[in-house]
Amino acid sequence: xxxxxxxxxxAPGLKRAVTGPLLFLFILGDVLGAxxxxxxxxxxxQAGGLVWLAFTIALVMALLTAFSYAELVxxxxxAGGSAVYAEKAYRSPLVAFLVxxxxxxAGMVSAAGLSLAFTGEYLTAFLDVPQVPAAIVFLVLxxxxxxxGIKESLRANIGMTIIETTGLVLVIVLGAxxxxxxxxxxxxxxxxxxxxxxxxxxxxSALIAYYSFVGFETSANLAEEIRDVSxxxxxxxxxxxxxxxxxxxxxxxxxxxxxAPAELAESTGPLLEVVRTxxxxxxxxxxxxxxxxxxxxxxxxxxxxxRLGYGMAQRGLLPSPMSRVLPRRQTxxxxxxxxxxxxxxxxxxxxxxxxxxxxxxxxxxxxxxTNVAVLVLRRDRVEHDHFRAPTALPVLAVVSCLLxxxxxxxxxxxxxxxxxxxxxxxxxxxxxxxxxVPADA
Length: 441
Description:
This protein is mostly helical and about 450 residues long. Helix content is about 70%, strand content about 0%.
């Protein structure tokens, strides 16, 4: 991260090469696709046919926090994101570390969940292989691509974003076609959950849906590279979230109308079931699209996690070996290995829905910190114009984060707690080691 002191001294900053359309596609690609391909079934298992309502609630909650990011990114247009805002607001290195580590842990947990999504029914449409060993091979392949080079990885992002968006639109069109020919049950989209209260079940489903909206927060790290950030960033951010929200809302309506919610809940490839019912498109073609979407999500997530681990090591927050790079490829080799090993352990020991919920839990702490930081930093004035969120929205965002935290189950708190405890231990050991002076110095 380029510091303000370095900038004042005339050190060169990052090139502002990110335009509005590129930023929109980056955020949309990060938000749209990977999670929803696997989690619609899990959502139907909780909310019955009211998947569309759960998506709507999750969208509103995501937008509340997005307003806080729009203000802070345009107010402090520097790379670093939530950890920087925490450092400015609370002036505590430990708090800043915890916020950054929550982001890092969320990335590794997310990659583990996506590896299980990749090796579910979408892969078994071609290969009948055991899920866990296949997930390990998948994560190793992602690590190899990550290590090969950042340029090679990101060049494919726009193409993959178009592919995964096309896949979701295809499901919506096919679902509408099934409804139009009279082979669907529109009442299925309004079937309440069978065994629990409607709002309790829908909120539980919204917690899973929230996982499908996260990813927008990583765009804060591009702040120094966005042209006319105060004008461009809010438009791209809200435009991408609303676009994803419309797609998810339509998916959440057609899927339980075409396939009974109980059947969706039993499938690890729920959108594939819609395609099979329509019959107009080979299921194998859609399975390929889904695999591309999930693989792209996992690759972007592990790129973020490995670079974040590398950056934290450079700042003395994690052990220094994680800042080592591969000499020829100039990628953070040690950080890639460490984050991949942790993701493999999580994939071997976890279930998809639990991993997705734990990602949300970890990011809720990040979002809670960011939403409070907006209010704390209102006393800090800057010279340039920036986006300003209505004061009520960060307050409502804090309430929404707390509400979603109350919906988390014990095993999700346990996993998140173990990861954070390990992080704090590593942080303390790293800080202690950095203070040790050699005897012959």
